[in-house]
Structures are given as C-alpha cells and as structure tokens.
Amino acid sequence: MFNRRYAAILVVLIVTVVMMLCSRNRKRYYSHEGVVWTTEYHITYEADRDLGDSIQMLLHALDMSVSPYNKASLITALNENQTCRTDAYLRRLIGASRVIHEQSGGAYDPTVMPLVNAWGFGYKSGTLPSRAQVDSILEFVGMDKLTLRGDSLVKSDPRVMLDFSSIAKGMACDEIARLLARNGASNWLVEIGGEVVAHGVNTHGKPWNVAVDLPSEQADTTVHESAMTITLDSLAVATSGSYRKWRDEGGNRLSHLIDPRTGDSRVGTLLSVTVIAPDCMTADAWATACMVMGDSATQAMMEPRRDLGVLTISADTVSGALVVWSNAAFADRIVTH
Ligand code: ADP
Ligand code: MG
Predict the structure, then answer these.
(1) How far is CA 177 from CA 167, 183, 185, 234, in A?
(2) Cα of 298 to ligand 2 centre, how many Å?
(3) Residues 37, 168: contact at Cβ < 8 Å?
(4) Are the C-beta atoms of 240 and 337 separated by less than 8 Å?
(5) Exposed (0-12), middle (13-18) or buried (19+): which is 86, by Cβ within 10 Å?
(6) How far does the centroid of ligand 2 lie from the alpha carbon of residue 5, in Å?
(7) Rounded distance from Cα 155 to ligand 2 centre (Å)
(8) 110 Cα nearest atom in ligand 1
(9) Contact 262, 211 (CB under 8 A)
C-alpha cells in the first residue's frame, strides 16, 4: 500500500520535472522592436526565452559609448577632451575604421565630425561653410591624427573629434547577434534602420530574404520601393544613400556624407550603395566609403572582390534614369523568381 503510493508520487514528480525541462528548452520565435538613434529596429530570433530586455540594455550601453548626440556618452567626453580613456566598443570601431580608411584611400574617415557639424548635418548648427573655413577644419581631420596607446586615445590636435554614426547601426546589429548566440538562440534576423544581420532560417524554415530599396525622391522613410531581393545566411547587408538625407542650398544638393580629402559635401550621380559582408560593421562602413568614393572608383575597386558584395544605383547624367551595377559576389545573392 505504502509502496504504491510512494511510486505514484515519484511518477508524478518525475513527469513534472520532465515537463518543466521540456518547456524550458522548447524554442520559439520571438520578435522585438523599438527605436534607437531616431530609427526603427526589428529583431526576430528563435530562443528558449524572451531576450528583449537584454537587447534593450545592450542598445543603451552602446548609446552611452558611441553616440556623439548623447551628451553623457564616452565619445562626447573624448570629443570634448574630458578623458582619453576608450572602452572596448570604441577600440573595435577605431580598429575597423582604420582598415577601411586605408583600403578606401581615405574616403572613409570617422574624424569627419567637425566637417559634418560645419555642413549642418551634425549636432551643431552649421549651414554653408566657406572654402577657407573648410580648409581650416581640414587641418584637424584625418585618422593619422589619432593613435591608440593601450586604452588611451592620443590626439595630435585637441580639436580632433570622432563620429561613428556611419557604422554604429552596423556594429549594434553585430553586437545583438553576438548576444543572441551567447544566449543559445539559433536563428535570427537583426535589422536596425535598414542594416541587417541574418543567421540560419526564418519561421518557415527557409533562408532569410531581404529587400534592397530603390532610391526614391521621397524623404519619407516609411515609403519603400524594392529594387530586388537578396538571400542571406550568416551574412550582413548595409545601405548608404544620398537620396534621403540631403539639403538644397542655393541650387546645390548637399549630402550628409563628406569627402574627408576635400572637405566637400556634394551629391554626385551615385544615389545608393548596398554592401554584403560577413559582419555588419564592415558592410556599413564600406557602404559609406563607396558613397564618398563615387560610382567609377567603387566599381573599379569592387569588381574583383569576392569577400564583399557591392551594388551601386546611380542616376544617368543625361536621362536621369537609374543605372544599376553589381559585382559577382553581390549577384550571387540575388533571388530570382
Ligand atoms: P546613414 O547614417 O544615413 O545610414 P551612413 O551609414 O552612410 O548613412 O552614415 C552617414 C554618417 O556618417 C553621416 O551622418 C556622418 O555622421 C558620417 N560621415 C559622413 N561622411 C563620412 C565619411 N567620409 N567617413 C565616415 N563617416 C562619415
Ligand atoms: Mg554606413
């Protein structure tokens, strides 16, 4: 009698524990979205629990480190010479930037901040600087004016300032992907303001497909017209364009992208560049670098590269029609229906 009751209790206990373990390990897809750096983000991932709070904490930590628009951030303290100590995020950004700065012949340069401000696209209200003003600012723009000595940032001129706005979203996508992997997630799509990291499969068990936007004259970021669809697995994609963030100044179109070699801000024929790379920080930096380089230089440099997929969309100088170009590494990822 006693043995039977004991056995029954034991069975109930075992079943409960097994059920608890099974439900803990049962993965499902979660979605998390919000706004960061004045842009929307959307994240879908398969995990055994909701990781939304951790994602938000990570985004907050990144903002406190790398945002020059956040007065309490570490980068603001560095820009204002209140400290010279960097953190791991900033050291990673500086390291990645230096590689792309060199490979792009100086077109990519995170020390453009004073020029971005002077042209009225930063956190200070500039409008239309004179040639003399631009030239005087150029004296303290350039990655050669920065060195990392251990954790310390050494500036050759105290007026040197950093701006990682061009790769912060890409870096944040990579960091969120790392957080998901660390927490046992298996499949994910992380998107911040159009920059994307994809891994594994979607809710239908199919590879993640991502639409590439067609440049549009409408400044409304909610209007999207798709140029094509690309498929991504363990890859990232980022787009930079001159077609949304520009301003008309006396008949001249000014862009938020500045050529650090001349200090100029002008919209050329290149409307957008989309780059596929193994990580989103690289994709994001190259998209900006190519926009600054322009279509001919980008196409000549990227034609033979297999490690980066590159798509350029330009306006024909005569007809204004859209001209689409891509290298082979990009073409390999286009989904044909
Ligand atoms: P978006 O932020 O619109 O997605 P990008 O990723 O191309 O576009 O980043 C644009 C930002 O990069 C600018 O607002 C400016 O802060 C910064 N920037 C401008 N010119 C350069 C440059 N030559 N190299 C690095 N960063 C730049
Ligand atoms: Mg970019």
Answers:
(1) 15, 10, 9, 10
(2) 15
(3) yes
(4) no
(5) buried
(6) 68
(7) 24
(8) 25
(9) no
Q: What is the pLDDT of residue 185?
A: 96
The letter for the amino acid at 106 is G
Cβ of 119 below 6 Å from ligand 1: no
State which residues of the chain have pLDDT below 70: 1-2, 19-25, 125-126, 217-225, 243-247, 249-251
Q: Does ligand 1 lie within 6 Å of residue 118's CB atom?
A: no
- Determine the straight-line distance between the first and last CA of the chain, rounded to whole angstroms: 69
For ligand 2, the distance from its centroid to the CA atom of residue 270, given in whole angstroms, is 15
- Cβ of 110 less than 6 Å from ligand 1: yes
Q: In what order do the strands lie in the sheet with 235-241?
A: 28-36, 39-47, 187-192, 195-199, 235-241, 270-277, 309-315, 322-326
Structure tokens at 115: 């020029």
- What is 266-332 written as a DSSP string? ---SEEEEEEEESSHHHHHHHHHHHHHH-HHHHHHHHTT-SS-EEEEEEE-TTT--EEEEE-HHHHT
Condensed to tens digits (0 to 9), the pLDDT of residues 170-194 reads: 999 999 999 999 999 999 999 999 9
Instruction: For tokens 């992997």, name the residue.
Output: 181
Residue where the block lists tokens 């997630």: 185
Q: Is residue 330 within 8 Å of residue 310, measured between CB atoms?
A: yes
Cβ–Cβ < 8 Å for 90, 98: no
Amino acid 310 reads V
- Does residue 68 line the site of ligand 1, with CB under 6 A? no
Query: Greatest CA separation found in the chain?
Result: 99
H or E element at residue 231: strand 226-232
